[in-house]
Amino acid sequence: MLSKKQARAFFLGGTLVTFLIFIGLTVYSLSGEQDQTNEENLTAEVVRGKEIWETNNCMGCHTLLGEGGYYAPELTKVIDRLNFKYNDNGEEVIKGILMSKVPWQPNGRQMVAYGMTEGEAKDVIAFFKWIGEIDLNGFGEVVGVDRKISPLAKDKINN
Amino acid sequence: MKYKSQKVAYWFFALSMLLFGLQLVYGFIMGFAHAGYDGLHDVIPFNTAKAVHLNLLVVWLLSGFMGAAYYIIPEEAQRELVSVKLAYVQLISLALVGVAAIVGFHFNIWEGRKFLEIPRGLDYLVVVNVLLFLGLILVTLFKGKRQTTTALVLSMGLLFAALLYLPGMLPFDSQVTDSFFRWWVVHLWVEGVWELIMGGILSFLLIKLTGVDREVIEKWLYVIVGLTFLSGVLGTGHHYYYIGVNKIWLIVGGIFSALEPLAFLAMALFAVNMYRKGEKKHPNKLALYWTLGAAIVSFVGAGLLGFAHTLPQTNLYTHGTLVTAMHGHLAFWGAYAMIVLAIISYSLPNMTGRKLYDSSMGRMAFWLSNIGMIGMTVAFGVAGVAQVYLERKFGRDFMEVQLEIEIHFIVLILCATLFSTGIVLYMIDFYRHGTPNDEALVAKE
């Protein structure tokens, strides 16, 4: 039968080994060769966009990379989806929403009216563009325009 | 109660109760908004309600863990707390930091990173507060007459929880790296070191309630926390599937997070077996309900429902949907809220001297809150699965789908009302016990 000493050795040994593997994998997957984010495109504009994203807690309602509030739409690939819906005017639509002084409320669900300047709106769009180009191991297709090519969406296109 | 200084725990528990009540209010605001009634939007928009709901949860659970430590450590170490005054300073500063953060969220002052919304300035105060807490606990433990496994596991959990707060404070330009290290805090807390805290409290309660030999209980405690880390650390990978990092996490995260339910299963089997084995039947039935309840519900909520969407093939579609909220609610309730309510139920009569061990109000509190929470989980689950199919599989627009699933939020609100009734009863029971006093001291072993 297992003794307390053996149980402790299992706990300490297991923890140490898994932690070391975890740290090793972290170093490996964040290394330059493994980059899937096009880090070279991380411009000052994109970084400012991320700051605006954070200081307004956009993640409190929206999701991005599948993480956030589940109350408002996923914003990964949002420009592609809006381009598809609004005849390639996606960026203009986003600008309109972010600069609006009255709450945008599609189907009755309200968004906070941020009344951003054009410069700020452009930064956020640059951030969304950078996010949209990341290789997400398949998730990008699930939330992107490609999913529109489902039987239901095809009917919509044909009509 | 054996040591006067254990009374400090009461005030941490009282703070927990207060913040827990407030958390429910913000939960309702969000539930109504999802159901289409967002009348408070101009004052408390959804992102504010969300940040408040999540952070109140974290702060009331931490306050509960700290209270648990202030109660358990003196008894395990067999000595008074090194400084009661500093413990009160720590309590008041914790409350102030928590309230400041919550008020700030209403004025757009936050960091906007889920679970870690507390702004940077306050983060430093959190660190100072936690260091003070750890200092008090660790000095008491090591100056004490004995260092038990239960006390060591509990303290180790608290120490690692503090250390793991730090990666969340690192600034990154890339959203992907930012998110990567955010999970070092959030995942390694809830699916790692918090389980040590839970295990420590559970072990203390089982020793007290069942009378099973400490050596036996503590041996299994090591096995359980061993399983937790063995699966949970690399299980962090399930948050890395689709956020823009290497595919290796699909394999590593998939395998190890699939093993995570084992730790919770072990915990449930352990608690039930110790209860069966125990010859001593402690009169505090309510504490026993909550203790066994925590072990079992955490297995269902954290273990089984976590497993339900942890494999990469499933998670590809459920990632970022209400399915996560389904798992999140029952997991936090079972694993952490219930264990805090268990230690409160156990320690309260000991601190106040009022032996209200069993009452119909206490039982109602247990059953209503649990049935309510299971109902809420089902409502979230139905809404989440419908969302996955309509939005992710059939490609329908996000808001169209949200309108379709509004009805499930009405069900959610009804179940949440049941849940809240249970919690209000628990609070009334808490209040009925009165405040702690020295007359409740019992002779030391």
What does this structure look like?
- The complex is a heterodimer of chains A (159) and B (445).
- Chain A is mainly alpha-helical.
- Chain A contains seven helices and two strands.
- In chain A, β1 (63-64) and β2 (67-68) form a beta hairpin.
- In chain A, α3 (78-85) crosses α4.
- Chain A is elongated and about 70 Å long.
- With 445 residues, chain B is mostly helical.
- Chain B has a single domain (4-440), classed as Up-down Bundle (Cytochrome C Oxidase, Chain A), CATH 1.20.210.
- Chain B contains 14 helices and no strands.
- In chain B, α2 packs parallel to α11 (322-352) and α6 packs antiparallel against α9.
- At the A-B interface, α1, α2, β1, β2 and α6 of A face α1, α2, α6, α7 and α8 of B.
CATH class of chain B: Mainly Alpha
Helices and strands of chain A, in order, run as HHEEHHHHH
- What's the name of the CATH homologous superfamily of chain B? Cytochrome c oxidase-like, subunit I domain
CATH 2nd-level architecture of chain B: Up-down Bundle
Which percent bin holds the helix content of chain A? Answer: 40-55%
Gyration radius of chain A, to the nearest Å? 21 Å
N-to-C CA distance of chain B: 11 Å
Number of DSSP strands of chain B? 0
Number of domains of chain A: 2
Strand content of chain A: under 5%
Q: Radius of gyration of chain B in whole Å, from Cα?
A: 21 Å
* Discrete helix count of chain A: 7
